[in-house]
Structure formats: structure tokens, C-alpha cells
Amino acid sequence: MSDISAVKALVFDVFGTVVDWRTSLIADFTKWSQKRGIKADWAALVDGWRAVYSASMDEVRKHPERGYMILDTLHRQSLEKLVAQLGISGLDDADLHYLTMGWHRLHAWPDSVAGLTRLKRKYIISPLSNGNVALLTNMAKFAGLPWDLIMSAELFEHYKPDPETYLGAARLLCLPPEQVMMVAAHNGDLKAAQNLGLKTAFVARPTEYGPLQKYDFEATGDWDIVAKDFGGIADRMGC
């Protein structure tokens, strides 16, 4: 049993850990397209969109001379390519904007809000997400996420798993890394945080990618907490 008694703040991966992006986007776009009379395989679009997520951030890393680009911009660029590839026609600029902003309108997993609310009573809680500040703020309003503050990769101009994100969050909170716990449904995210001295908590989200899920069904590292949901994390943290 690792010592987590010094933890003062918990920071959370958001896409897949706090919110169910896949189900949310497919349902949103299906309902919207019926009103617009647009036909498309929205599951294919959403899955394809997420599949190029990491590569889009890698491009930012490879080309620092171009400057940092927020996730909204990367999402829009990826969307335009996917719409063409999938042969989705009849979309104007306003439609593409609506689809891009779908990432601001994601629903929380059933246990997220209650678990976060419990943790907030005793600890500072914040996202630490690759989503930009406006995206995370709008999502919090939409889904009722009770964050104390919004921390985003945008603040550090580095995407996870770059060290600048995890260490930057601790620095903004004026805490040493060992007093900050990273919470994620992704083992890779936790490994990057652990390597920098942060505490770690894993919660499995085995349906994040729907039938396409290939990994992160269970904890694969020596994490400080492994729980089935946010309520389990709250239990372990004494909330």
C-alpha cells in the first residue's frame, strides 16, 4: 500500500476518463443530422476522428516553429480531412463548426459527477487535459463537472505526455509533484505522471472505444490506487 497521505490535489485526464466522448458524439451528431437532412456514418467519423488524435498532436511537437495549436484547431483540421475521406456532403462552415464544438458537449460517465463532488470536499480537483481551456470550461458547464479550476495543455503549450504538462500543473498549484495525484483511465498517461513523481490512480473505462477498445481494460502499472469508478477513488482518499 503506497503512501498517499500527502496528496492535496487530484488532476484528471478528461476524454474517456471523466466523459464518454464516443457515445456522446455519436448521439449528438445523429440527432443533429436528422434535423439537417444529412446522412453519414457518424460512428465511423467519430472513431476515425479519435484515431488521428495522437498524430495531430505529434505534428505540433514536430514543428515548434509553427507555434502551439489548441485542440479545437487540431480537431477542425482533422474533421475536414475525414469528411472528405468519408464522402460526407452537404456540410457548410457552420456545420463543420457545430461538429467540432461537439467535443465541448460531452456527457460524463454515470459515476463522474458524484465522485468528483465527494473528492472536492477534501481535495483540489482539476482537469489536466489536452483539451483547450474554452473546451474544458464549456464541457464543465454542459456536464456539471465541479472543478475548482481548469488546467489544460494550452496553459503549458505542451500536450501530454510531455513532462511540461504534469510538472506545470504541480507548479501552478504550488505543490511538489508527490502531493498531486493524476487520475486516468489510460495506463500510458499514468506512467508519464508517475515517472515525474506524481501519485497515480487508475479507473477502468472498458467501453471508451466501444467495440474498438484494444487496451486499458485493466491496470498494467504499479499505480497508487486502482478503482472501478470515481466512487472507489473517493473511498480510498477518505472522502
Q: How would you sum up this structure in a few lines?
A:
The chain has helices spanning 21-36, 42-51, 53-62, 71-85, 93-100, 112-120, 133-143, 153-156, 163-172, 187-195, 230-236; strands at 9-12, 124-129, 151-152, 180-184, 199-203, 225-227.
Describe the structure.
With 239 residues, this protein is of the alpha/beta class. A six-stranded parallel beta sheet has the order 3-2-1-4-5-6, with helices on both faces. It has eleven helices and six strands. Helix 1 (21-36) packs across helix 2 (42-51) and helix 6 (112-120) packs parallel to helix 11. It is globular, with a radius of gyration of 18 Å.
Give the SSE map.
Elements: E1 9-12, H1 21-36, H2 42-51, H3 53-62, H4 71-85, H5 93-100, H6 112-120, E2 124-129, H7 133-143, E3 151-152, H8 153-156, H9 163-172, E4 180-184, H10 187-195, E5 199-203, E6 225-227, H11 230-236
Parallel strand pairs: 1-2, 1-4, 2-3, 4-5, 5-6
Helix pairs in contact: 1-2, 4-5, 6-11
Radius of gyration: 18 Å
- List the helices and strands in order: EHHHHHHEHEHHEHEEH
Please give the largest β-sheet.
6 strands, parallel
Structural class: alpha/beta
Order of neighbouring strands in the sheet with most strands: 3-2-1-4-5-6
Number of helices: 11
